[in-house]
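User: Okay, second chain of the day. Same drill as before: sequence in, structure tokens out.
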Amino acid sequence: MAMQLRTGKIDVNVYDRSVRKRLGTALVPNAGRRDAESAMRRTSVDSVTMDTAQCGYLAVTEAVNDLSADGYAAESIETSILLPAGAQEESLRRIEDQIREAALSQGVKVTGGHTEVTDAVTRPVITVAAAGRLLSACEDGSGAYADGMQRDIRKESSTLSDIHRERSESADSVEVDAAIVMTGFAGMEGTYMLAADFGEQLRERFPVRMISDMQTLLPLLSVRRDAEAVFRAHANPVCVVNASEGGIYAALWELSERTHMGFEVSLPDIPIFQETIEFTDHFGINPYEMQSAGTLLIAADHPETLTDLLEQQNIHAQIIGHLCPGRDKIITNGDERQSMNRPAADSLIPLYAGKG
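Assistant: Same drill. Structure tokens below.
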């Protein structure tokens, strides 16, 4: 029986049966032995298909984030830009400016790309392939951040952490070998997108300052520095997952699939901005199923040591739960315990589908 694919990132089961199994040994992760040089290099590909103002910047950020979460330092990117028929040259220039800005902030070079106008798309579709080496293979171990940019990001991240620290006290009672540590805040990317793309609607209900504050989140959506700190902390993370499309719930599901374990996570312990809660409530969106670049989930054997090391570098980190034997995926909220369902499509998709 034919099965229609849902909009957005494909379901993990669909990927397994219709991508991974079809590719078989042609897929590098399942290809068996690789030479040492190729094992030190990896490429990550990500696309932005929503009609968002910063599509070029976000596409670069998300591709580099995927590499970073696997312990690789991105060095270069290649881009593909598909523009709808009738697109103006100014639109292309704007996207290229965003790509340049993101590349400079990430310390990567643009080595090539493809640009096309086609009636196959109705809005810009930006695809970025980021390539890099294992952190341990980098000669200077710096990961390619410019010192000035790194200091700026630390300052901004520290300021936001102070503002919202009351919502992010560590769950010190968690006493397990593999706890789940989260960096950043849930739905941070989606919150930025709502503020940037739907600011006029939000101003009808919320103060201008509240919206403009969330529009400053863009440079904080990179997890490169966070991931480099994790892998260099010698904390031996069991698994690191980059939260992106589908939000924290999708990332938790991926963490469970990759570790072959269940989990128990406390909803009140998941860091989230009050602005995120209010914006998503206004649009009827689930904040935990919304784009969440800027966040890592880390399964770690020594979580307190890891969180301390990250906090020393002004990286917001918090224990939100732990892995469990079996496959049960439990979200707790006080005395309430609920099994998490398979992640839905990103909650922003319906809103952007009706945009304009």
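Residues 30-34, 139-176 have pLDDT under 50 and may be disordered.

User: Thanks, on to the next one.
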